Amino acid sequence: MVNLLDPTNVITRMFNAGKYEDMYDYCKNLLAKTPDDMVALQNISLSLIYLQKYDEAINYCDKVLAIKKSDTYALKNKIYALESLNKFQQVLTLCEEILSSNSRDVWTLNSMGLSLNELNRHKEALEYYDKSLEIEPNDVTALMNKAISLSHLGSYHDAIEYYDRAQTIDSSIKEIPLAKAKLLEKLGMEDDAFLAAQGILNKDMNKIKLDAKNNKCSVFHQFCENEFETSDSK
User: Fold this and answer.
1) What percent of the chain has pLDDT over 70?
2) How far apart are CA 3 and CA 234, in angstroms?
3) How far apart are CA 112 and CA 89, in angstroms?
4) Nearest one of 88, 3, 17, 91 to 47, comparing CA atoms
5) Which helix (H) or strand (E) holds 142?
């Protein structure tokens, strides 16, 4: 039988309900009784992150790390807080610490790449996204961020392909169609840019363009006709 009064269960209920202030107060009370309570220290830092009190969150992460030097949970919370404060150089140091003990931690590989992106070190960032994708080929975060790095480096065709891979996996990401469209515009591919902005995948663009050519109409016209036919068949 689940003990509803167990601190871990109480904190979990508060977190799932989005009651971060209550979660903070509860952990604070636990720490008043036992200052080195690891459950309370870990979760008070988490509550502070959600309350956007990042400096305080870092302070509690440091208290955990003083007890357990390489606590991955505390290191990741601290990384998140530092990212939110735009302290990306410090993030790199913490990521390297995690990766020194677990080189296949995808979350950390992606965080390393993201911070390198923010520091305009895009070629280095690519190395970490590639490592992440070797472990999880369908990791959308790595695919998206690799596309961003490639775009900054002027490799627009490659960037479009990685955006498209991410879109194939998760079509709900609203940023992808616009990002692809902007890159295609830079390449002077106006028809493709229009189709990309409508959320069309790369593999489906050629058929629409071929149909437009055969029907002697614009790609815009062909797309609208296809949409009308799809709507009419429902």
Assistant:
1) 96
2) 51
3) 10
4) 17
5) helix 140-152
The string of pLDDT tens digits covering residues 50-101 is: 999 999 999 999 999 999 988 999 999 999 999 999 999 999 999 999 999 9
For 105, residues 6+ apart whose C-beta sits below 8 A from its C-beta are 72, 98, 99
Q: Which residues does 233 contact at the CB level (< 8 Å), separation at least 6? A: none
Name residues whose C-beta falls within 8 Å of residue 171's C-beta, 6 or more positions apart in sequence. 199
Max mean pLDDT range (106-110, 189-193, 216-220): 106-110
CB 23 within 8 A of CB 36: no
In the chain, the amino acid numbered 99 is L
Regarding pTM above 0.70, the answer is yes
Q: Which residues of 122-155 are buried (b: 16+ CB within 10 A; e: fewer)?
A: bebbbebbebbbeeeeebbbbbbbbbbbbbeeeb
- Terminus-to-terminus CA distance in the chain, angstroms? 50
146: left (phi over 0), alpha (psi -120 to 50) or beta: alpha
